[in-house]
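Is this the right way to post structure tokens for a design question? Let me know if I should format differently. Anyway, here goes:
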């Protein structure tokens, strides 16, 4: 697929190695989540992932949402960004102007919910595993968490894939 042209093997391997203590999933599953997310971003936001790198979430970029899956392959996936970038993501997803931080959270939560639902269908088809989704969480993420910095055509945001919830609510 043309959207999957960042140095997937090298970039993701480096991220996985640097963030293994956070991700805590086997390599193949973590890679499948990130590849599926990349395809989803390309299809849904018409945005191409240019670069991926390991990072620590900056305090100024911790606005976002997450979704947790429960079951045999439990994990949390979250998107965080500066408020302006979060608004850009929300507006690209919703295709209309967003007027408040609450609407941004709702849009990004819904986007993650849709992605995770699609990913769960893939897991069910491929492995016969049915996972459950918890309701999305949103707000300001915990500080000092390991994330993947995702560079797209319009800027950068942070992707969290791991076992621990990143929002307190």
């Amino acid at each position: 697929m043309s959207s999957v042209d960042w140095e997937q093997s090298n970039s993701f391997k480096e991220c996985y190695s640097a963030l293994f203590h956070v991700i805590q999933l086997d390599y193949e599953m973590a890679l499948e989540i990130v590849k599926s997310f990349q395809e989803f971003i390309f299809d849904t936001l018409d945005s191409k992932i240019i670069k991926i790198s390991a990072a620590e979430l900056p305090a100024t970029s911790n606005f976002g949402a997450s979704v947790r899956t429960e079951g045999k392959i439990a994990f949390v996936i979250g998107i965080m960004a500066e408020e302006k970038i979060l608004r850009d993501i929300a507006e690209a997803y919703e295709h209309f102007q967003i007027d408040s931080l609450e609407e941004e959270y709702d849009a990004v939560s819904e986007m993650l919910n849709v992605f995770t639902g699609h990913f769960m269908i893939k897991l069910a088809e491929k492995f016969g595993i049915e996972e459950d989704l918890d309701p999305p969480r949103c707000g300001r993420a915990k500080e000092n968490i390991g994330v993947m910095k995702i560079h797209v055509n319009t800027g950068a945001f942070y992707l969290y894939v791991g076992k621990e919830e990143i929002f307190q609510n």
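Format looks fine. Someone answered above. Worth noting: The chain is about 45% helix and 25% strand. Confidence is low (pLDDT under 50) at residues 1-7.
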